Amino acid sequence: MVIQRARSSDAKAQRADDLLDAAEALALELGGVRHVTLAPVTERAGLHRTAVRRYFESKEELLLELAERGWRQWREGVDRALEGRTGLTAREVADVLTDTLAALPVFCDCLTHVALSLEGDVSLERARIFKRNAFIEHDALVTALTEASVLSRAVVTALVPAASALAASFWQISHPSPSLAELYVQEPQWGHVAYDFEPKLRLLVESTAIGLMQTLPE
């Protein structure tokens, strides 16, 4: 069933959300956002194939919006994880970051593509909006983690982007293409680096948090 064209601002916002939900679902099914194209997204959302252009100028803008939503979801997940907690250690902060990132696989995937192409493939104004909103969520993350932990703001400010960068890299490594997956079956001595996303992320985020506490001034 094709949904009728949205008229009100609320309806337009809902259509945009429907397209983002469809893109996220397809990314999970297909093995990553690089496989997402506009036609299946609009079909999944129940819209006419030309309708997507009323909400997003391109696939790149759609995926950048998905990444922007991921920043908000990450901050909301951290807020929930920190509710009522104080005095968290470096290890506990690392657990919060790891758990909340691992719960957002499409966001982890998008983080790589934001840096590689998405920001540069949209208009200057759209890139500006993304940067502004992403930094708002980043700063809120830093504040919440600093207030709930024994870590200094300098440590948390360095740790949050480190955690997101590690998540972006490890997600790509742990989700190999079909040909690479077959190679790892044939050559298992190489395949061990490609899996166990969450344990590897937790180890490295925790190690980074502890190391930053020892190297950065209070």
Automatic annotation (TrEMBL):
Domain HTH tetR-type: 13-74
Xref: Gene3D superfamilies: Tetracycline Repressor, domain 2
Transmembrane segments: none
SUPFAM superfamilies linked to this entry: Homeodomain-like
Residues annotated to bind DNA: 37-56
Pfam annotation, one family: TetR_C_34
Coiled coil (UniProt feature): none
Keywords linked to the UniProt accession: DNA-binding
This protein's name: TetR/AcrR family transcriptional regulator
Record organism: Mycetocola tolaasinivorans
Lineage of the organism: Bacteria, Bacillati, Actinomycetota, Actinomycetes, Micrococcales
